[in-house]
């Protein structure tokens, strides 16, 4: 083999090595700038609540259908989840639509606007429930004047609902004796005769109310008429809800308002990612319902109900294909 030929072989070998390194480097750059993620964080709520196991059921189904890896994270629920999405510390979350609306507009429990999130789906009703004793003589929300009332934890979505509902009936916290208690604390205080009424915003049935109904005859106050219409006009996240009388063994069905539990995502997720997520949820509702009872309440025709924060383009694409506006 001549010296010139050996030199040529060496040059070819070096060029091949450089090409290989360039190809590898190009793949890395492509991954950084344009490839689809496969690992996601799904922010939920406390481990003893509804959001955490429900998010687990959703994540498991999407993982199976799409071939991704969604990990569920326990959190302080709606308000914290808003911030996790905004800071890109979570990719998906379950959030009440009123809390999301406050964040988007910088109102209520948020002093400034928060951004970085989009709506994926409206999944079920979180119902505004006002509990009194059936023999209390309290017939309407206006009758709460002068009564001892728990309006939910300080700074909570429940408190905001309570303040809005009271205002629609001509009342403020100056007109009642206020307590700010959790659901469980409210139930215990009511049982011990320390309060006359309490507000709950949750899915139905609510455990605190159910446990009380075993030993006491309860009544839930209706939110109807001009007051309900005004609330839905002023706060578009409210929707009309009926609680059947057999839920808490009340004398009649309860007509009230509710907010909606939403699946929300980071706005910067790709259209394809969110489309596949949404499709996996709504094309596998039977399987989801078997995994968690709350998923039995998911309805495609209600997927945009109570949505006041724009849909992600991926979710919007799926709903348009299904004829949902």
Description:
By secondary structure, the protein is an alpha/beta fold. Helices cover 41% and strands 20% of the residues. The protein is built from eleven helices and ten strands. Strands 1, 2, 3, 4, 5, 6, 7, 8, 9 and 10 form a ten-stranded mixed beta sheet that branches. Strand 1, helix 2 and strand 2 (69-73) form a beta-alpha-beta unit. Helix 2 (51-66) crosses helix 9, helix 6 (183-191) packs parallel to helix 7 (207-215) and helix 9 (271-282) packs across helix 11. The longest helix has 32 residues, at 3-34. The chain is globular. The protein starts with a helix and ends with a helix. The model is unreliable at 2-35 (pLDDT under 50).
The helix count comes to 11
Unreliable stretches: 2-35
DSSP strand tally: 10
| Rg | 26 Å
Average predicted confidence as pLDDT: 89
What is the end-to-end distance?
A: 75 Å
Large-scale geometry:
globular
H/E element sequence: HEHEHEHEEHEHEHEHEEHHH
Helix content: 40-55%
Category by helix and strand content: alpha/beta
Strand content: 15-25%
What's the main sheet like? 10 strands, mixed
């Amino acid at each position: 083999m001549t010296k010139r030929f050996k030199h040529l072989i060496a040059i070819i070998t070096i060029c091949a090595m450089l090409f290989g390194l360039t190809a590898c480097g190009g793949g890395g750059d492509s991954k950084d700038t344009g490839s689809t993620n496969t690992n996601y964080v799904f922010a939920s709520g406390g481990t003893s609540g509804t959001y955490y196991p429900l998010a687990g059921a959703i994540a498991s189904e999407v993982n199976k259908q799409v071939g991704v890896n969604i990990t569920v994270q326990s959190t302080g629920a709606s308000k914290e989840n808003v911030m996790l999405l905004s800071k890109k510390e979570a990719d998906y979350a379950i959030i009440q639509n009123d809390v999301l609306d406050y964040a988007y507009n910088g109102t209520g429990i948020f002093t400034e606007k928060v951004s970085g999130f989009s709506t994926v789906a409206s999944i079920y009703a979180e119902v505004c429930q006002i509990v009194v004793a059936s023999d209390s003589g309290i017939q309407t929300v206006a009758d709460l004047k002068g009564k001892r009332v728990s309006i939910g934890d300080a700074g909570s979505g429940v408190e905001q609902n309570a303040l809005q509902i009271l205002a629609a009936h001509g009342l403020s916290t100056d007109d009642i004796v206020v307590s700010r208690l959790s659901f469980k604390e409210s139930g215990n205080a009511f049982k011990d005769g320390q309060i006359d009424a309490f507000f709950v915003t949750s899915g139905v049935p609510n455990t605190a109310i159910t446990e009380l109904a075993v030993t006491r005859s309860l009544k839930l106050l209706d939110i109807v008429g001009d007051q309900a219409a005004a609330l839905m006009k002023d706060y578009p996240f409210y929707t009309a809800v009926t609680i059947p009388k057999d839920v808490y063994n009340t004398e009649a069905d309860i007509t009230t308002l509710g907010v909606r539990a939403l699946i929300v995502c980071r706005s910067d997720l790709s259209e394809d990612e969110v489309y596949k997520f949404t499709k996996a949820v709504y094309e596998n509702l039977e399987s989801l319902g078997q995994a968690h009872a709350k998923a039995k309440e998911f309805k495609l025709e209600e997927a945009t109900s109570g949505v006041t924060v724009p849909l992600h383009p991926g979710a919007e694409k799926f709903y348009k294909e299904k004829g949902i506006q």
